[in-house]
Structure formats: structure tokens, C-alpha cells
């Protein structure tokens, strides 16, 4: 995101987005917001609930399962590659900024920071959000052994992560599905899309065209860029509600910016190959060196001809 795309409000804060929690939900959220160009920092105190697992065997993409340390490293590496900053700090509290917009995030043994939006992604404890909701609906009271207790209401946020508190989004804690890491990652991604769409609406995109997706596609599918631009202009205009309050010049600017974004999603065969190789190389960084060497030796051994093969070749 260029500085020209940022609103004055966004530029007034230390970060566009603060994510509290560096587990699957928090890292997934950070990947999507950072890829959209939002200045994103993840505060992770290193106590994600996933670290209680001995070995993760149902996280898609790892046929034999994955050890927690490697998965944690992959998640953080991905978030940083996307543009996130990961800070090992505990968030003690979040308060509204004096101006009413944005938040002040108080950290243990670290100078407080400000953010335009916050994504809560901690599995166990929402205590740091206490006081943000004037209606006090964020926590519910229950009785146990004759004593009253309070805990965060896991049904407080909507399914898309939005909450009654403006600019506060919750990826976790939430309902029963949060007990599975893969579902938590999906929840984080969905919540991040809500953040991005909120940003797009703030920048002037009407609700009907504020939806967002993050796909990279083959350039060969874009047969004629000029024709595609015209189709997308028509599609954009068809979706804009007639009662929008934008000046035509501003609407045209947003339309062309959106089309440029879509065109930029298409990449060439050479770029596909380059990114594929880059992806494989980055995975190797998380694999034990001895395993890599063992695999290399096995591959070399398979390539060497046997004595019988050598004799046949000689005949």
C-alpha cells in the first residue's frame, strides 16, 4: 500500500493493524492484512494453545503430521514474509485512543503503541479487552461451587470476526470450533478479510464493491487485458448501488484502482516457476539438515546404475 492510499487517520497511528496472538488464527490474520499492504504487527507472548499439543496430525498439507516447533516456525516465517512484524511481548490491556478512533495497546515491559484496528487472536484470555465495550456484554457471569465468576463470551463476535466495538475484530477466543488449529487458521483468515473490507469502505469503496479476495492467477487466463478492463468496468458499475454518494471522478478513480489490483494478480509462466522454486527453498529452511542430506544421498544412490545395468549397457 502506497502512502497515497493511506487515509490521514491511518497515518496518525503506529500501525494499521495490531494482532494479539501469534498462533494459527493470529498469523493467518496477519498474512492477509499485511499482503493487502496494511502495516501489521503481531504481539506473541509465546504461549499459543497449539504449543500444548504433542504432535499435530490433522493440519492440512502435512500427510504424516507436523511437530509443533516446525509448524510454529513456518507460521511465523510466513507472516514475516507477508510483511508482518512479530514482537515477543505480552499485551496487558487495550484502551480506546483519546480521539475516539483507534486503540492504545499497553505492553508488558515495552512502550505502548497505537493502532487503527485490533484483531484479538488469543485462545484463552480476553481479559486485556475488558472495558472496551460500554455495554459490558463482552464478559458473562456464571456460578461455580457457590461463587460467581466471569469469562469472555465466546459468542460475542459475529462469524466474520466483527464486534459491537468499532475496529475491534475477534479471531479468537470464540465458539467450539476453535479447538482445532486448522479451523482457527480459517477463522483468522476470515476475520482478516473483514478488516481489509472495512479499510476499503473507509477509503471510499461502496459496500457493494468493498468485498476482497486474495488470489494469484495465470497470465494466460488474461487473454486480452484491454477487453478484460472493459468487462471489469462494466461489472464494477453494475455492482455499485445507484444511491452512492461519490463524485463520478472519485468513483472512476476507485474503479481503475480496483482493476489495476486485479490485473496485478496475474503472473507469467516464468514468474510462476520462480515463485514455485522460491516456495520449495523456503520450506527447506525448516527441514532438518541431516534429513535433507539423507534424502540427497538416497536420490544419488537411485541414479547410480547397478552392476547388472552396467553390463547390459556394455552389451
Automatic annotation (TrEMBL):
GO MF annotation, one: oxidoreductase activity
Check the UniProt entry and state the signal peptide residues, or none. Answer: none
Which Pfam families does this entry report, sorted A to Z? Pyr_redox_2 (PF07992)
The domain of life for this entry's organism is Archaea
Q: Boundaries of each FAD/NAD(P)-binding domain copy?
A: 15-109
> What Gene3D superfamilies does UniProt report for this protein, alphabetically?
FAD/NAD(P)-binding domain
Q: Which UniProt keywords apply?
A: Flavoprotein, Oxidoreductase
Query: What InterPro entries does the record point to?
Result: FAD/NAD-bd_sf, FAD/NAD-binding_dom, Ferredoxin-NADP_redctase_2
PANTHER family (UniProt xref): THIOREDOXIN REDUCTASE 1-RELATED-RELATED
Official protein name in the record: Thioredoxin reductase-like protein
Amino acid at each position: 500500500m502506497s502512502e497515497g492510499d493511506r487515509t490521514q487517520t491511518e497515518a496518525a497511528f503506529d500501525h494499521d493493524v495490531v494482532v494479539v496472538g501469534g498462533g494459527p488464527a493470529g498469523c493467518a490474520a496477519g498474512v492477509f492484512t499485511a499482503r493487502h499492504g496494511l502495516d501489521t504487527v503481531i504481539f506473541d507472548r509465546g504461549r499459543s494453545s497449539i504449543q500444548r499439543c504433542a504432535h499435530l496430525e490433522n493440519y492440512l498439507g502435512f500427510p504424516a503430521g507436523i511437530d509443533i516447533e516446525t509448524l510454529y516456525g513456518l507460521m511465523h516465517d510466513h507472516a514475516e514474509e507477508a510483511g508482518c512484524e512479530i514482537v515477543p511481548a505480552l499485551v496487558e490491556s487495550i484502551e480506546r485512543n483519546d480521539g475516539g478512533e483507534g486503540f492504545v495497546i499497553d505492553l508488558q515491559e515495552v512502550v505502548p503503541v497505537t493502532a487503527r484496528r485490533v484483531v484479538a487472536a488469543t485462545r484463552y484470555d480476553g481479559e486485556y479487552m475488558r472495558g472496551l465495550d460500554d455495554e459490558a456484554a463482552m464478559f458473562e457471569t456464571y456460578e461455580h461451587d457457590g461463587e460467581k465468576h466471569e469469562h469472555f463470551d465466546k459468542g460475542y463476535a459475529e462469524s466474520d470476526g466483527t464486534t459491537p466495538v468499532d475496529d475491534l475484530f475477534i479471531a479468537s477466543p470464540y465458539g467450539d470450533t476453535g479447538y482445532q488449529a486448522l479451523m482457527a487458521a480459517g477463522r483468522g483468515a476470515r476475520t482478516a478479510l473483514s478488516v481489509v473490507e472495512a479499510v476499503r469502505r473507509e477509503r471510499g469503496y461502496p459496500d457493494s464493491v468493498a468485498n476482497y479476495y486474495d488470489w494469484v492467477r495465470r497470465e494466460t487466463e488474461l487473454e486480452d487485458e484491454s477487453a478484460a478492463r472493459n468487462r471489469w468496468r462494466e461489472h464494477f458499475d453494475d455492482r455499485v448501488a445507484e444511491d452512492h454518494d461519490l463524485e463520478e471522478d472519485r468513483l472512476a478513480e476507485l474503479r481503475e484502482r480496483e482493476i489495476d489490483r486485479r490485473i496485478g494478480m496475474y503472473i507469467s509462466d516464468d514468474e510462476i516457476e520462480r515463485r514455485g522454486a522460491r516456495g520449495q527453498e523456503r520450506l527447506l529452511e525448516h527441514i532438518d539438515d541431516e534429513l535433507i542430506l539423507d534424502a540427497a544421498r538416497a536420490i544419488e544412490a537411485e541414479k547410480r546404475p547397478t552392476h547388472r545395468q552396467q553390463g547390459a549397457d556394455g552389451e
